Amino acid sequence: MKTKNILIISILCSVLCLSGCKDYLTEIEPGTTLLEDFFTSTPAAVQNVTGCYAPLMWEYNHTYCSEWFIGDIASDDALKGGGSTTDMADVYDIENWRTTNQNTMLLDFYRAQFQGVGRCNLALEYIGKMEVGIDSLFTQSMKNRLLGEVYFLRAYYYFRLVRIFAGVPMPTKVLGSSEEWGMPRASVNEVYEQILMDLTQAQKYLWKKSDYDKADLGRATKGAAEAMLMKVNLYMASSYWQKQGVAKNPSDCYKDALAWGDSIIASAEYDLCPNYVDNFTIEGENGIESVFEIQYAEVNWGDYGSGDDPTKFGYTAGSFTQILTRSRNSDIGGGWGFDHPTQNLYDEFEKGDPRREVAILIPSTDVVSSYQEQTDEVYAGNKALNNKYAMYRDPEGIGGGYGKWSLHASRGPLNNRQIRFADVLLMYAEAALGAGDAGKALTNINRVRARVGLTPIAAADNAALRHERRCELAMEGHRWFDLVRWEGVDGKGLKAHMDAYKATETPEAQSYMNEFVAGKHELFPIPQEEIQLNSTPMEQNPGY
User: Fold this and answer.
1) Which domain does 448 fall in, by range?
2) What DSSP character marks residue 520?
3) pLDDT digits (tens, 9 = 90+) for 32-63
4) Were both Cys, which of 139, 185, 195, 487 would link to 155 (CB 3.0–4.6 Å)?
């Protein structure tokens, strides 16, 4: 799918608008295209499913809205960075527990996920109606695969929503009239249960990674669905989400997570890359360790005919993450300098752990050409940079290999690794600990450590697991969500954890931070515009 990029299927936009008028017309106007007229071939169905992936890529509408602005920056792993505290003020608020229901970054992120849900609902309804044999390519296996991809994606969008906002409105069908748009928030338990149902259906329908043609690598696979079933069960088992109303017994969650882990590990479809750094290069995309990636390409067009219009979602198939996280220094990047790794994260790594240098770059002053650029590099006393997504091997050798800055401008082609096999092994270890099997946990933690040449640990416990997750997945957007579900890392609660982290920060960074409020700041507010647009009353999250 990387080589095909995201196909422009603007016809769907047109037919959606037209189909909403059918109830008000006594007869079909000549020239009208109906949805049923579009879903008449395998290429049309494939195009529709491809369009369901596109909102995962979106990082800009009214502002930049990458999920790592929460996953990294809300946590103890990163500071906002940028040119000043007013540079992306909405993310400054996220960083410092000042977020309000007017936050435009959250509004754009929220809307992107629901655009994805809407596309998935359309695909499920109309591809589900297509008859096997409509052409030579539309076999039962192909139909199942396409439906499986869409079930996976709908679950993925709802998962991204629930872990940030808790319960949200949950349409599971095409909304054909304005009367259907008003919808209350579903409960946390209802959202998680829907996610499990969709992922279970996806796992039944999807193909293995090895069954896809090379051009289709990047599409959802059976292994991706199994990995997500592991992850969702771990979330549901956690103390925080149990308190939010999850009904499934934690012991059943851990048992199911282990079973899905057994399946994906036994499939032999995945393994650890011999070299850790290969996970963050162009050459390593969709490789042996890749379970699911958001696909990007360096082209200036997007989908739904938006061209190069920066006021519309989807106006590019490239990623903004590279320029957002590159050094502000013109000598070594000329980026915007967001997502500064913290000293707290730097100190977490063991001596000799090569993952630290892969995750964190600290520019030396001898590469800076002026005093002003030295000053621009620093945010709240911190000049460290996210090394994983700002730097990568250029496919044409322009960057000179890994460790050199990309010379691409505002949009880059590097995929975002959402699920790696190392993550699967650590999730399996976490499930094993939850189920009381420390031996299985130890084996899988040490497998991850061995890849980077670290000494095996002698015994596995939650502290060892949580340390390994932080180091292995540093600066990949996982940390905040792990901290929330664990309620900190030592059993003392998330507020105690964040207060302790705050004490390790520079005096300047501390001066920006508000007090972390337990029972409020674990979640983010539902955007006020969405509450006002909903004709059905929607309660706001506590404290907002």
Assistant:
1) 423-512
2) T
3) 667 777 899 999 999 999 999 999 999 988 89
4) 195
Q: Which amino acid is at 312?
A: K
Helix, coil or strand: residue 59 = coil
Task: Count Cβ atoms below 10 Å from residue 2 Cβ, excluding itself.
Answer: 18
Could you say which of 258, 292, 326 is where a domain stops? 292
Q: How many domains, the chain?
A: 2
pLDDT in tens, 381-399: 998 999 998 754 444 433 3
Residue 390 lies in a domain: no
The DSSP code sequence of 301-348 is --STT-TT-TTSTT--SSBSHHHHHS-S-TTTT----EEEEPHHHHHH
Q: Is 396 exposed, middle or buried (0-12, 13-18, 19+ CB in 10 A)?
A: exposed
**Amino acid at residue number 421:** F
Cα 501 from Cα 490, distance rounded (Å):
13
DSSP 267: T
**Residue 208 lies inside a defined structural domain of this protein:** yes
What sign has the CA pseudo-torsion 41, 44, 49, 52? negative
The answer to which of 30-34, 206-210, 418-422, 434-438 has the lowest mean pLDDT is: 30-34
In a domain, 240, yes or no: yes
Q: Taking Cα atoms as reference points, which of 228, 299, 295 lies closest to residue 58?
A: 295
CATH number at residue 215: 1.25.40.390
Tokens coding 229? 């079933």
What is the Cα–Cα distance from 293 to 227, expressed in whole angstroms? 13
CA 412: distance to chain centroid?
Answer: 17
Whether the Cβ atoms of residue 187 and residue 195 lie closer than 8 Å to each other? no
| First-residue to last-residue Cα distance in the chain | 41
Q: Of 292, 324, 352, which residue is a domain's last? A: 292
Question: Which helix (H) or strand (E) element contains residue 15?
Answer: helix 10-19
Give the three-state DSSP class for 64: strand
Nearest to residue 12, comparing CAs of 56, 51, 53, 43?
A: 51
How far is it, in rounded angstroms, from Cα 416 to Cα 378?
Answer: 26
Could you tell me how far CA 457 lies from the centroid of its own chain? 30
Higher pLDDT, 121 or 306: 121
Residue 14 lies in a domain: yes
